[in-house]
Every structure is written in C-alpha cells, then in structure tokens.
Fold this protein.
Amino acid sequence: MDYAAVRGFNYQPSYATCGFEIWHDFDAGAVRRELGLGKKYFPGMMAIRLWLSWEAFKRNPGRFADNFETALAIAADYGLVVMPVLFNRWHDSVLDYGGIYIDHFLPGVSWVQAPDMFRPYLETVVGGHAADPRVFAWDLCNEPFSYSCPPSDIPHIVSAEYAWLEGLYRACKELGAQAPVTVGIHPGHGLAGIKQIEPISDILSIHPYWTCDSPPHDKKAYEAQLDEYVAFAEEVGKPLLATETCWGALDDAKRVEIIRYTLGELKKRNIGWLAYLLHHSLIADAHRPEYGPIGAPGYLAFIDPDGSLRPGHEVFNEY
C-alpha cells in the first residue's frame, strides 16, 4: 500500500456519546448513510479509521462480531478499506469515550484483571479477519501513555503499559494478522513517543495536530516536528501515516484555515492522512455546544448533523 497516498477519515457514528454505545447500540443504517455522505462529498476518500469497543464485545461477543462484519461490509460497498482501532487509552474530562484504564494493565492493582482477559476479543476480531483484505492495518491502541504527569514520575506504569501493548502485538502476529500492526501515538509525545512504540509498530502512526491558538502552536515548531518524524521513519525504514490530524474550531472559517495549513504541510512531506473527523457525532469534540459539552478542540467534524457539508470543508479535496 502506498501510505503517502492515503486520504481518509476517522469515523465515529453520529448516534452515540462513547465507544460502548456505538457498538452496543449499533445502527447499520446510520453507518451506511454517513459513509455514503463521506464518499459523496470527498470522492477521493479511500480509507477510514474505525474505533472498536472491547466493552461492547464483553457484553455480547456474537453481536459485536456481527456488527463489526456489517461495518466492514458497508465500508467495502463504498470502496473503503478500514483501520480498526482495537483499544483506546485517550480519556477526556469533558465527555469520556471509554476504553482501557490503568486498572486493566497495571499488575496486581485491580480485581478487573484476569489471565488472558483480552484474548477472546483478539481471537474474534483479529483472528477472525486475519487475512481480510478490507482491513489495511490494525491499530492496537489509540494514544497510550496518556498521563497528566511526566512519565518519568511513574516508570512502573509506563513499563506495565508497554508490556500490555507488546503482548497485544505478539498476539496479533500469533493470530496471523496479515495487515500491518501499529499504535496511534499521542501528539504531545513527539519523536520520543514514536521511538517508544516503533518496536511494536509495522508502520508509524502519528497524530500531528496543529492546534492554532487552542493552545497556541508555533508553525515552525510544528513543521520541525513533522521533519523529525519523516527523518526517523526513513532511518528505521518504515512507512509513516498521520492516523489523526486537523484540529478543530467552532468557527467554520477558522477550521478551514487549520485544515488547509495542516494538510498542506503533510502533503509537502509525502505523509498520507486520516483526518479527524468525518461526520458530526455526540462523542467528545465532534459536535457544536447545543449537542453537548465541548472541550478545547471545539468542533472537528467535516459533515454537519443535518448531513450537509460543513461550510468550506470541501477544502479537503484540494489535497
């Protein structure tokens, strides 16, 4: 696959506020309609990054498996390949998405842990689609190592989290995953973060958000970081892909400015992307204030809740 040519989006369906709701209350009609709108407005869209929910799998493994298969089939009907995100470690004080918490991987701290607790999920999702051509990559975990203190202050937690991710990577390989495996690293971790997960990433996944003024973000610093990513990818001989990008704003024109600058800088460096976020959703940072709490990123969707293209957001097609 030519990763430099990847043009696509992260997709969170409109009807839910968190990952568990998305998959527990799966709405195939909404998914079909919203991906169809994506292909209508962005004809060059070729891929989506689709976040899954281990919690929903735990409630009803068979139903989750069926819903995942349905989602893959709908994506394929629109000529889209999929990067499933197996687990999530990004959490939010405004409107949390759910996923994995420290209780799940730090040895001996919680009764929620059990031997091989994630194995049935991996066997169903990864093992069941190990050779599926509709899957172009597996993202082990969205933004691990997301702490509110310096990692150097909690080395035992960092080590435990890496060991958990390494175990997931090894399990995916044992289950025969043919698509490359990666880890979507938090943008604040910079080059050190990419180096940290490189041993368990067949492709390098970055989240290069230029945040404009929320918080203030110097363009020279942003561009220098992109150059560091490119140089490291060349050094280790691995493809580089922006699996999240394009910071948000409540003001449409300001958001267009952010998109134009961000995608322009990525294209200059032959970095492909999966922008955040295709369609309005009730999850964090994917809606305007009248639909629920908002955080620093504001509003990141490209398609508004009524199904219309957000003003000016056809700019995506220029890149």
Observations:
- The first strand starts at residue 7 and ends at 11.
- Residues 3-318 form a domain with the TIM Barrel fold (CATH 3.20.20.80).
